[in-house]
Automatic annotation (TrEMBL):
One of its GO terms (cellular component) is endoplasmic reticulum membrane. It is a multi-pass membrane protein. GO terms for biological process: endoplasmic reticulum tubular network organization. It comes from Betta splendens. InterPro entries: TB2_DP1_HVA22 (IPR004345). It is found in: Membrane. Belongs to the DP1 family. Residues 181-196 have a biased composition (Polar residues). This is Receptor expression-enhancing protein. The chain crosses the membrane at residues 38-62. GO terms for molecular function: microtubule binding. The gene is reep1.
């Protein structure tokens, strides 16, 4: 566990942060030699991190595995060994040069397919969103009308109890209560018809 933590820190600091700062300095100074040096490093480091994903899963049980990774990153960076330059010039550049046309065609096809897929799923996503919006609007309208009805019925029942006891708390005659209930029902019915 300790070896893993140390290797992660070394790769982070010496494999990523230091080269990033050095690349910044190369851009700032506009030194072409430094540009080339750090571009070769970043290409090799990208390949290293890609391979590292798989080796960490399958080879981490090997003795001194993490120490070897640390040594490899130091070798890549060392101005004495020029490891990234050696790997790039001997292996990566010749391989990429011979396969460049095939890689470009594959990337072009992948880009076209990804664009078509993006458009296809974009259309599906818009259809789903539109359907969801319409359903939410129709459900929302039903909920709103139910709420309005429940409020109006609640208001009627509170008004009914108010009319049962007239002003000043005196009880009203049955005929007057019946007439006010009939008026309230007709008002409620006309309101419900108007709202739907």
């Amino acid at each position: 566990m300790v070896s893993w933590i140390i290797s992660r820190l070394v790769v982070l600091v010496f494999g990523t942060l230091y080269p990033a700062y050095s690349s910044y300095k190369a851009v700032k100074s506009k030194d072409v030699k430094e540009y080339v040096k750090w571009m070769m490093y970043w290409i090799i480091f990208a390949l290293f991190t890609t391979v590292e994903v798989f080796t960490d899963m399958f080879l981490c049980w090997l003795p001194f595995y993490y120490e070897l990774k640390i040594a490899f990153v130091v070798w890549l960076l060392s101005p004495y060994t020029k490891g990234s330059s050696v790997l790039y010039r001997k292996f990566v550049h010749p391989t990429l040069s011979s396969k460049e046309k095939d890689i470009d065609e594959y990337l072009c096809q992948a880009k076209d397919k990804s664009y078509d897929t993006l458009v296809h799923f974009g259309r599906k996503g818009l259809n789903v969103a539109a359907t969801a919006a319409v359903m939410a609007a129709t459900k929302g309208q039903g909920v709103l009308s139910d709420r309005l009805r429940s409020f109006s019925m609640q208001d009627l029942s509170s008004c009914q109890s108010d009319t049962d006891t007239g002003p000043g708390g005196a009880a009203q005659p049955a005929a007057a209560r019946h007439q006010s209930r009939t008026m309230m029902r007709s008002k409620s019915d006309s309101y419900n018809k108007a709202s739907t």
